[in-house]
Amino acid sequence: FVRLKQDMRSKDELTEMGETFNEMIGLLENSFAKQEQFVSNASHELKTPLTIIESYASLLKRKGLSRPDLFGESVEAIRSEAVRMRTMTEQLLWLAKPKREWRLDWSEVNVAPFVEQSVNAFRTAYKRDIELEAKEGFAVRTDKGLLKQLLFILLDNARKYSEGVIVVRVDEESGACMIRVIDEGIGIAPEELSRVFERFYRIDQARTKGQEEEGGTGLGLSLAKEIAETLGAEVTLESEPGKGTTAAIKLPARLLSKF
Ligand code: ADP
């Protein structure tokens, strides 16, 4: 009887192990399927700029000498599509890299001067009017490189989807650090707000200001979300179509320490 009981128990255990095993296989299959989807989306998205580059290069080859008027437009299209491909490749490399390989370098960062430096760099690169309202006197524990990258993604969106002044505001709210990037651009409809964080998701491309010059990748915000998670931060968007968008980075209270 004791043996029988033992056998039964081991059968239960076997069943349980079988179920766990199946669950693991399911998870693995799911993750492979996601990986395959990612690779297929990425290849598809990289094809678009390549096709444009190829067709403008062919046009120049055929008609460049007899039609010098085509030169400016073609070269600009080739240049901007090459820039888009570079951005996309960089973003894809980050997204494809397992998080454990993101070498983090944590340090105590004085927020106001750090944001000021980043904003200055961005302003110089893009010659955009950016106002900074930064509350002094508090620090967060973070990885400087990643936080800067995150801020640049939000600034870059404000730049691409608005024309006026961009405001960057840094303050402290209930013990958390808030970095806000505020634009008065085209805005995002409520039903699109959660979708814009999906990989490769872009809202109706025709709406984009100067789409020809400034094709995005649809990867910026999904990378922003992953960076924020890694830093223990949160990225949120508030927006009103036609009025503008506020993107906020919230760094949790536990990371704050008063000077
Ligand atoms: P993209 O490279 O296309 O900008 P993102 O992932 O950063 O990719 O953004 C996804 C989409 O969300 C954009 O294509 C755009 O339609 C919308 N979006 C993001 N930020 C803003 C903003 N500040 N104002 C208006 N629309 C925005």
TrEMBL record:
Lineage: Bacteria, Bacillati, Bacillota, Bacilli, Bacillales
Gene source species: Paenibacillus thailandensis
MF (Gene Ontology): ATP binding
Membrane topology of the entry: Multi-pass membrane protein
Protein EC: 2.7.13.3
Name the record gives this protein: histidine kinase
Top-level EC class: transferase
Keywords annotated in UniProt: ATP-binding, Cell membrane, Kinase, Membrane, Nucleotide-binding, Phosphoprotein, Transferase, Transmembrane, Transmembrane helix, Two-component regulatory system
Keyword Signal: no
Catalytic activity: ATP + protein L-histidine = ADP + protein N-phospho-L-histidine
Places the protein is found: Cell membrane
Domain Histidine kinase residue range list: 41-255
Keyword Phosphoprotein among record annotations: yes
Domain HAMP as annotated: residue spans: 1-33
